[in-house]
Amino acid sequence: MDPGLRFWMSYVDARGGLTERSGDSTLVVLPPAVAGEFDLPDEFMVTDEPDVAREDGAVLLATGHPVLIQAADSALSHGDVGVVTLAPPTTPAPDSPQLEQRVRDQVQVEHGKIDVTGLPTRVDRPVLRLGALVTYSLSADEHYQERLECWIDAGSGRQLAPDVVARLRAAPRAERATPARPPVLEAVSAAVGRAHAILDAAAERRRTALSGQASDAHRRERAHARDYYADVLRSLERRRASADPDRAELLSARAASTREERSRRLLEIDEKYQARHEIRPFRLHAVLVPGWRVPVDVRRGPRRYPFAFDWLAALGAFAEERCPHCGAAATLSASKNRLGCIDCLPGAGAVAATA
């Protein structure tokens, strides 16, 4: 199905309409308010196949259609904000020996060993999903748009890998969303800045790549302007050399104003081709990923440091955690005095680098 038509279907469903596939077409039933907003009938057939539209009289809806553009503008204006709860696990948590072996296999702690110390408890770990529309302006005439998305583990502040995101997308959702508690909302809110910085960095890389395509046109227009003003100045200089004193003074003044005009024109050309990008967020989801919180001790010799790791059933893995001392998203390390990370414990990073 055409991406534009697929978007339209989801938009209609979200606005309280109904859609039903019928062969190569789809029956759409719109609420009166939505039908009036788009100046469409309450009930009609749509398709993304031109031949089907001609033969069956269905409305051809594909990317670029004014109805889709209007729906996209409406969706962007209203935004998509909410809480998404994944379905709870249907099996009990692994037993303590299994969890202990898994956490030791998956989680690295410099100079420390992990011991599970109690029974796991059910938790919902918050993940932030931030989507944005990015508009790239490469010149006064060249504009591009694309959608970017970022998933952040709110507990650790780390960006999730594409394969992890794919598994979360495919995970079944709970029938009823779980209300987000204040600590969950605070964690998600704290991750928004990190997600925006990631999107901004990605947009800047993309803008740099796109601006390379406009650089040739920029150089050509700038070279044309420089050649034009060079010809004008040479002509004025020739005329000034053979003119009488009064006329020569006038031509000198014209040459000075031409140089000023050249500077302004070159600056206008540079501004015309100055690449920019604008990020317009439209989606913010707090995705609650079910799992079990496993209490542990990180042991170094006789010293024990209490901690906890979250086993996420949908991923079959433990989530990464922040350093309990400095809050960094770095490899944990156990010292003789505290549990920290290789960033905040003196000498830990050097030991880790040489290991």
Explained architecture:
By secondary structure, the chain is an alpha+beta fold. Among the domains are: 76 residues, 2-Layer Sandwich (Dihydrodipicolinate Reductase, domain 2); 63 residues. It contains nine helices and 15 strands. Strands 5, 7, 8, 9, 10, 11, 12 and 13 form an eight-stranded mixed β-sheet that branches. Strands 1-2-3-4 form a four-stranded mixed β-sheet, sandwiched between helices. The chain has a three-stranded mixed β-sheet with strand order 6-14-15. The protein is flat, with a radius of gyration of 31 Å. The C terminus is likely disordered.
Number of helices: 9
| SSE pattern, N- to C-terminal | HEEHEHEHEHEEEEEHHHEEEEEH
Question: Which outline best applies?
Answer: flat
CATH topology category name of one domain: Dihydrodipicolinate Reductase, domain 2
**Level of helix content?**
40-55%
- Low-pLDDT parts are 350-355
Estimate the mean pLDDT confidence. 87
Please state the second-level CATH architecture of one domain.
Answer: 2-Layer Sandwich
Q: Over the alpha carbons, how many angstroms does the gyration radius reach?
A: 31 Å
Largest sheet: 8 strands, mixed
Q: Give the CATH class of one domain.
A: Alpha Beta
Query: In angstroms, what separates the terminal alpha carbons?
Result: 52 Å
How large is the share of residues in beta strands? 25-35%
Structural class: alpha+beta
* DSSP summary, beta strand count: 15
